[in-house]
Amino acid sequence: MAGLIGLTCVLSGLWFLFGMPVVVAVFAWKYRRTRTLPTGLLVAVVMLVAFYASALSLWRLFTTTYWNLSFLTTLDAAANAAKYGHPVEHGAEVLLVWLVVVSTAAAAVTGAATAAIRKAWTRRRRIAA
Question: For the chain, which residues make up each domain, given as ranges?
């Protein structure tokens, strides 16, 4: 079960790192052509910003309280038990998994809220018109 959770975390993190900027670019191109703000662009930008903002906030929280390694050293330590020792490797892995899980959850919640608010806003504008 832990392996499945880890795989899901890695895939969701990769999606937000590489897939979501492509989605933003596609919707930005659509906006450039039509000059109307698509809901997809708004949601994708909000989700991308929420993912990175929550990751940065969580990283700063962890590094000020109990973790003293840099981000790149943490990435190296998560895969290199021989160099850093098992306790540091395990701590780095746990920290990175929490970073991805919390950031993904924050992005999903803000994306869903943005979509709901946008839908209510456009429905209200249609009724008023």
Answer: 10-128
- Residue 36 is classified by DSSP as S
Give the pLDDT band of residue 55 (cuts 50, 70, 90): very high
Distances (CA, A) of 98 to 63, 91, 106, 126: 13, 11, 12, 42
CA distance 105 to 51: 8
Vertex 86: Cα angle to 85 and 90 (nearest 5): 125
Q: What is the pLDDT of residues 21-31, one digit of tens each?
A: 888 899 899 88
**Torsion angles phi and psi, residue 78, rounded to 5:** -65, -20
Q: What is the DSSP letter of 69?
A: S
> What is the structure's pLDDT at 45?
92
Burial of 101 (0-12, 13-18, 19+ CB in 10 A): middle
